[in-house]
Fold:
Amino acid sequence: MEKIIGIDLGTFNSCVAIVDAGSPQVIANRGGYKTTPSMVAITESGKRIVGHMAKRQAVTNAENTVYAAKRLIGRKYDSAQVRATRATVPYSIVEGPNGDVRLSLRETLYSIPEVSAMLLQELKLVAEEYLGHEVKKAVVTVPAYFNDNQRQATKDAGTIAGLEIIRIINEPTAAALSYGFGKNIDRTVAVYDLGGGTFDVSILEISSNGVFRVVSTAGDSFLGGEDFDQSIIDWLVEGFRDEHDIDLRRDRMALQRLKDAAEKAKTELSTLEETEINLPFIISMGGNEALHLQRSLTRAELEEMTYDLIDRTIAICEHTLDEAGFDKSEIDDLILVGGMTRMPAVQRAVTDWLGKPPCKGVHPDEVVALGAAIQGAALLGQLDQDEEMVLLDVTPHTLGIMVKGGYIEGLIPLNTAVPTSRAKRFTTVRDGQTTVRILVFQGDEPEAKDNELLGEFELTGLRSAPAGEVEVEVTFEINADGIVSVYAKDLDTGKAQSITVTASSGLSAEELKRMTRAAEDYAVAQKLDEEAKQAKQRAEETIASIERLYPEVESLLAGSDFAKEALERASEIIGEARSAIDRGDLAKMKETIDALDRARRMVLGLLGRSA
Amino acid sequence: MEELIADLDANSMLKRAGEVSDLDLTHAALLSLVEGEVELGSIALQMGLPVDEAIEIAATLIQKGALVLASPPSDSRDTGAGSSSGKSDDERRVPLRESKETTADEGEEEIELDPLRRALVDSTYEALKSASLYEILELSPDADAREIRDAYFRLSKLFHPDTLYGKRLGAYREKMETIFREMTAAYEVLSRRKRRAEYDERLGEERLAALRKRMLGSIDAPSAPQKKRQLDVEARRRLAARRLRGGLSTGVRAGARSVDGPSRPRSGGAQGDGLGKLGDARDAAQALLRSIDSRNPRNTPVDAIARRAARAEEEERYEEALNHWLAIERLEPDWPGLEEKLDELRAIVTRASLAEYRTLAAAHLRAGRLREAALVYQRICTGAPDDVEAHLTTASIFRRMEPPDLRSARDYAQRAQQLDPGRVSIRILLVRIYADAGMKHNAIRYLDELLRDHPEDLDAQALRRELIGAKP
Structure:
């Protein structure tokens, strides 16, 4: 049976899960951790390192260590969000050829999908090592509030990593799937998902026959744990400036240390009332002089400096519930997802808002990946018959076209169940107008320019007539896979045109192909590297074990020509092996390993022992 | 005649066990009844079979190419206020687009969808064109919020394209998407109090009353979604509903394709030469049908059946009476006193035949004919739904027979456990069934629950060792 994995590709931590013998489970990585930091670094030697290894070296290699790439995925370089990120991260963000974002790491440019692909490759590997065979398919989660460009970029990352992402599902939805799976319950649930970088809230109906219906969803893809960290960093930086008149932000290494310390303090304050932030030698003053940073932070102070962030999430919750047309009392269960929901102030705020405590027994870091794995198994028909389920998802954003005056005319409103289709008639706006340009936008702002452009096409050959006389019917359709198609029909002549709107990840088809090939090459190179390392180790071990026997042979068989000859032969083989190791010649190394084994057996034979 | 009926009975039992792959007497009987376009419901009546079983037989015949489903006549439905107001509720909804493939027969080889599901999708899709929002969700205009939600969820599981993800569906994918879209649109209106009231008003009292009447006569729409239901069962149930619902129904048309040459249209009815090897069976079927016909004239109205049922009961032919009442249940579930009557007759029939069944089962068991024993035990369980021992025995027979039917074994064991939740032997059997089915996680989970309740139980401990030890 073909295995499919579920991946929660988080802003700061990622997680991979499968459904094994009907039960969903998270797969631990080589280090035994169930989540892997979403960090990728390029070392001095040009090697890629991912996850915990990347996190460990982040302080000393801050400029070449990428974290929170998810904040940049599928975004335009000149967007406000990218500008905000540039101000806070130590790695260098530059503009790409398509107005997209590229990262400059050790003088090489990387696209965001490429960086995400490195993470996906790592998670794929974790799953493959556990399962013992190759994995080709995955369901990956994204924040509910991701637009189609961001989703497409995530899919591209999968392609580059050699994973077919058969479905992208929303994180809060995945959490609800995992929560309701196999429980046979009829419930209305609210999922509050405050992760490292994004915030989402969804209202779902779960029915006992295994139908999960998303009623409404909303969020902010630029609000998360990192903003809490940032509040602490700002507080530390300002305090330091007041005291020493030095801006720590200008030192990238100091900034990275501040980031780590802020995150640690925030986490500690979820269980402690007060914590100490201690950063000795935070900045060098020339010579042997250095300044230290030492402050204590209380939980109350942290809550004071972040209450506006929490308030923002509650306002979004309120809005979502409104959209769903539900009353607070109609929500049966509250599910908290994401590491930030460990913060007592967050729990308190949500509980106060809904008037009921969150459900216990939901693991905030793992529940999303589990849900993705469940959806994957469900789509491939791999669930037990009792547990078969179907997910009825909605569109998180309004889909529309640009009309006169640069405004958006929505065709498919947000929170519409997919698959869906809607049609609307438009008229020409100018006298004698014979072509209509149809610009497809996604987003909920009234003006087109504030929304995401998904695609455009032209309907030509309209009858020349006074403005308003020629009618065009535009039909939008979203299928179960989330693919958007647009049909435009001239009602006068019956002439029709259609396009399948492919959201743009910022990568052209050629680039995607090239990057996929590069990733494959890298994977192959890495595999060879690993093999070479193993061959080298094996050869060196065997050499050492032979050389250990030399004194014994010499003392026991002194004067024996035969022994002398044998030792000479062994030395010769060892010499060859050493030179192969020095040259890094993998084929030769493999060859000499056999010869070394034979030599070892021969020497052991001289001593009358068997190998 | 009585012997032939007994044969029919045995056949349907065998069929349930998935044993019948080729056409048998029952199929021939049904086939010979079909001339031109006939409603499946009336055929079921004529054969004295429950509609579910008639559907199942027809589905096999469709699969064999001996029958096709007739498309519903397009003008059979009134296209009054309901249809137009249904669509005008939201003028932005797209009218149904003609699908690229218009018939189910085209590109058949590429479509991975069994004929039953196809028929279901086709007939539902056709019916959408003129259906009111209530009809789309198979609801009475009196349905409450809960019923509306349940209906939508139940139907979603049948028609959401994800339920057939990755299958080649050809034009059916689009049809399913359209059905799902229309259902969602209907749900969005009917689930909001205000929008529903507006819709009802537009629909008008007259049309509402007509809908109410029609929906009351429908045979399905269980009030609560049943857990763990098989899709096929749901599909069959739904198909049956469609056939029998007066003007809504489609028919089964004979002879569009022959058994041996699926693409070649046949001239005559089902009695044409294409049946070949079925000739003998058909003759027998004809005889059988003549005798059935003498008792059940064609197209009998329901109260005529009721009269016959009463007469049968008077003459103490209880089994026959029960069959008549079961037919009535399919046609008129709201018939006064129906449920009590069914319960009463079931009890009588069960009591009368249980002893015989038990003797028969024991004989099969002694002779090592496990499969036969299982079938008879299934009967016993139907007759004695509260008999723990019978369920337990049935479950273990299903598990032990070759090849085992673990799904049935589990179902019976679960029922036994429901009846006697505390009994360790039942729980151990369940664990073994799970283990046999390769669901080791479930097995160990259940076993651990059992061990928590009975930590000192030696059998459970031994089983735990066995299971853990069996793990590689």
Q: What stands out?
A: Chain B touches chain A through 35 residues (CB under 8 Å). Residues 338-366 of chain B form the longest helix (29 residues). Strands of chain B lie at 37-38, 67-69, 252-254. The two ends of chain B are 58 Å apart (CA to CA).
